[in-house]
Amino acid sequence: MTFAHNKSWEHFETVFNSKLPIKEAWDKIIDFHEKTVPTCYWTQLRELDVETEQQEIKEWFEQLVANDPLPQKVISIWIGIVKLLDDNDNKVNAIYLTGADSYDKDDIEWATEPTYEPENKYGVLDILNQIENIIKEDPKNYSFLDWILPLAYCSLTIDEIVRRKLDPSIFLKSQKKLFVTTGHDSGDYMNLSPIE
């Protein structure tokens, strides 16, 4: 059995639109893929502590914008998923935050021309790196899982942070609403709940 990109994406969208707490949503993503390709690593992925990292991400977002406020014209935030080299030249998975003066829900082009780039815009996420370490043991399915799982995790956890945990007053100094999108720089992305 093999994964089908379109079926995984449809399931991911269904879970995302359900607005479930991160642990429940993450379990649904893992359950779906486990039924498609049963292997030994699904239990490890299911046991990742996705709830604890949410608080760290929330605090990082808030501190980043509090220390380097959004310019008045910024109406959208892009949270990119990237691989970076650490001090030892090892690849690590991270996210970064930028902002733009434009937004289009159907075209991510606006994110390629940021007008807001805070000094410490990169944040290394332990969960993304744990996902990487688990799935790299499966070379046959790695390129698929390395696409869907980081995007699903970031979308689900950041959306819940925005909806339920973030202090909007830190972000909404000049705007009544900020659009938020996360995704891979290669073009696959998910529009999240706005900050309002």
What does this protein look like?
There is one protein chain. By secondary structure, the protein is α+β, with helices and mostly antiparallel strands. It has one domain. A hairpin with a 5-residue loop joins strand 1 and strand 2. Strands 3-2-1-4-5 form a five-stranded mixed beta sheet, with helices on one face. It has helices at 5-18, 22-36, 42-46, 50-67, 126-135, 142-165, 168-171, and strands at residues 76-85, 91-100, 122-124, 179-184, 189-191.
Distance between the termini: 43 Å
Order of helices and strands: HHHHEEEHHHEE
Radius of gyration: 17 Å
Number of strands: 5
> How is the largest sheet built, in terms of strand order?
3-2-1-4-5
Residues in β-strands, percent: 15-25%
Tally of helical segments: 7
Number of separate structural domains: 1
Shape label: globular
Q: State mean pLDDT (0 to 100 scale).
A: 95
The biggest sheet, with number of strands, parallel, antiparallel or mixed sense and barrel status, is: 5 strands, mixed
Helix proportion: 40-55%
Oligomer: single chain
The chain-level structural class is alpha+beta
Query: Runs with pLDDT <50, length 5+?
Result: none
